[in-house]
Each structure stands twice: as structure tokens, then as C-alpha cells.
């Protein structure tokens, strides 16, 4: 009697949870990329002579005095913070969808159990 309704409800709740996990995965990818940009040393091709300039990771600030401007221009802090800012809506929305979907599933299970108990109790009263 309630199974079709419950199956549809569970399907929608599972879809919501899956979307939430997908959005959280996007946020994780953005945060891993940000970590890579912040923690891994890199090199830049100089425009003055076609040679490579080695730059330290932005958080370590191990730049040589001659290459500091070139390295700082390659990975600027506003762009790095922009990646962090871009990951926040994905993480928040994904977490909210995941929690909402799982809560809907648990609530549906609880309601179904209560309905089954009511039917069982009604049958017991009619038999007595």
C-alpha cells in the first residue's frame, strides 16, 4: 500500500544525496588544486631571455630577489583566493543536499515503521 510512495520518496532522496556528494566532490577537487598551486614550486619562462626561472611555492616565499616579480605575477594571491571562494558554494550546497537527502530517507523509514505498527495494532485490536 505504501511501498510505491516510499519507493518514489526514496528515489528522490537518493538523487538529492547523490547530487550533494557530486557537489562536495567538485569542492574537493578545487581545494586539491588550490593546495597544489600553494604548496608546489614552479618555474616561469622569462620574457627577457628564454630561460626558466625557478620559483618557490607561494606559501614558502622562497623567491630569489631577481625573480620575485616574475614569480609573483605568475601566481597572484587574489586568483588563489578566488579558487578558494569558488569552492565554498559547492561545498555548502553539496553538504546541505547530502544531509537533506539522508534526512528524508531516515524520516521516510520512521514514518513507514509507524504506519506498519499502527496497522499491526489495529489488527490485534480487531482480533481481540
Primary descriptors:
3 helices; mainly alpha; 128 residues; rod-shaped
Percent strand: 5-15%
**Beta strands, count:** 2
Distance between the termini: 24 Å
- State the helix count: 3
H/E series: HEEHH
Cross-sheet strand order for the largest sheet: 1-2
> Which sheet architecture does the biggest sheet show?
2 strands, antiparallel
Average pLDDT works out at 84
Radius of gyration: 27 Å
Helix/strand/pairing class, anyone?
A: mainly alpha
Low-confidence stretches: none
Estimate percent helicity: over 70%
**Shape summary:** rod-shaped
Describe this structure in words.
With 128 residues, the protein is mainly alpha-helical. It is built from three helices and two strands; from the N terminus they run H-E-E-H-H. The protein has a two-stranded antiparallel sheet. A hairpin with a 6-residue loop joins strand 1 and strand 2 (52-55). Helix 1 (3-39) packs antiparallel against helix 3 (77-127). The longest helix is centred in the last third of the chain and has 51 residues, at 77-127. The radius of gyration is 27 Å and the shape is rod-shaped. The two termini are 24 Å apart. The model has no long low-confidence stretch (mean pLDDT 84).
